[in-house]
Fold:
Amino acid sequence: MRRTLAIALALAGVALSAQDINGGVYTGLSLPVGDLKDKSGLGTNQFFGAHVGGHLDFAITRNHEVRAHLTYEKFPGSGWGGFDDPKNEYTAIQAGADWVYHFDGPRSGWYTVAGASLNSIKDDYEFNAGGYRISGSASQSGKLGIRGGGGYSFTPTFSLEGTLNQVFTDKNGNDGFGFDTATWVQVSAVFRFGR
Structure:
């Protein structure tokens, strides 16, 4: 069994070494939608968030590539008003892989993105209770996420990209967020190193 695994890993290493591998960084706006933004007392009650991340691109063919990525998301919160005036600020760390299809060839023109990720999401909350400001946090790790979207490569080293991200969260329990999915639109400036 170990020998078979070692041979499979060696063959995978040879296959990847023959591929075109590049990396880069991206940053931009994250716009919460649905319950993550506007579920009363539980959402961020803000229109904008931000993100930063890094990626490795593995070119499979002229038009297809697999992209591994790691992203940090921040969704600042504002108060909802009312008697207890709750405030929720969400952060997320996302690790995933995307299948990227370039219509015009390697890193030029239009492309599409479809991917999956594992996510760790945290809600730092505050609310008023009996004249005191109470704060705490709830966090969920290993949550499955999916995303899809597209972009346009202006040069081999610069693109603009938009994706719709959805992460399946726990609604109830000690660390429940009060909703089943965290959804956001991510608009990114993508910078690639190498060719």
In short: The beta strands are 20-33, 49-59, 64-75, 87-102, 109-129, 132-155, 158-168, 181-192. The two ends are 39 Å apart (CA to CA). Confidence is low (pLDDT under 50) at residues 14-18. The helical segments are 2-17, 35-38.
